[in-house]
Amino acid sequence: MRQHWWAFFLLALFATPVQAGRTLTDDSGRTVQLPGPAQRIVALAPHITEVLYTAGAGDKIVGTVDYSDYPPAARRIPRVGGYSRIDLEAVLALRPDLVIVWESGNNMAQADKLRALGLPVYVSQPNRLADIARQIERYGELAGTEVTARPAAQAFRQRLNALQAAHQGKPKVRVFYQVWKAPLITVGKAQIISDAMHVCGGSNIFDALTSMAPRVSLEAVIAADPEVIIATGMAEGRPEWLSDWEKWPRLTAVARDNLFHINPDIMQRHSARILDGTERLCEHLDTARRRRP
Length: 293
Known about the structure:
By secondary structure, the chain is α/β, with parallel strands linked by helices. The chain is built from 11 helices and 12 strands. The protein has 2 domains: 17-154, Nitrogenase molybdenum iron protein domain (Rossmann fold, 3-Layer(aba) Sandwich), CATH 3.40.50.1980; 170-290, Nitrogenase molybdenum iron protein domain (Rossmann fold, 3-Layer(aba) Sandwich).
């Protein structure tokens, strides 16, 4: 009798589905339900693609957008347009069982159309560095790759905590972060880069602005007189227009030679690599502190 009971227990154990359905609340507050782990994912931003790879779900991505070039394997994924304008027919042709969108970067009207067509749409909007660890975990839940996602998220948190501890209590440095020249674009309070500044002991001179990527005037920057100016541009090299600030030698950042560049790929993508950019940012602010009279 005992042997029969044990055989029944094993049968019941292995007959139970290992992967159950998924029900998560996304960053827009909507409930996203999946019958099981997603197997065919369309990622509608380069950083979403990166985070999926970090979460162990890279091999489940069937479509993504332009500039999704990291890790190198991502370059082979079919494209469905740019992150601001998506080819909806191309998305449908890929037969995805999950679409992940970026709330402040994608066209939300197009996301609504995908949802109306019956596709599960998960909205992502990480505004703080700590949010990235949570995104890694959630993508792991959506794709059934928690065994990879959870330790990756924990490693991110440990690294972030170490950065915060290393720079806690340091003298504040006033920073102007320049995304673009014409128009002159910076980052507002809600942008994740402002959070990176705070980790490094910096303060965004436009922290009062609520827009993610506000346009500002040259006069406003000069009036704020930042101690540091950081520019990114479109590539790894230093943008030529960073040197344009030398026309205003009375600016503290110019007078102390605190004009710095950070590769946008490690600073402006909401992925695990943003901690590489944050480390570089912290180094620049430490240099500015040493240059104080």
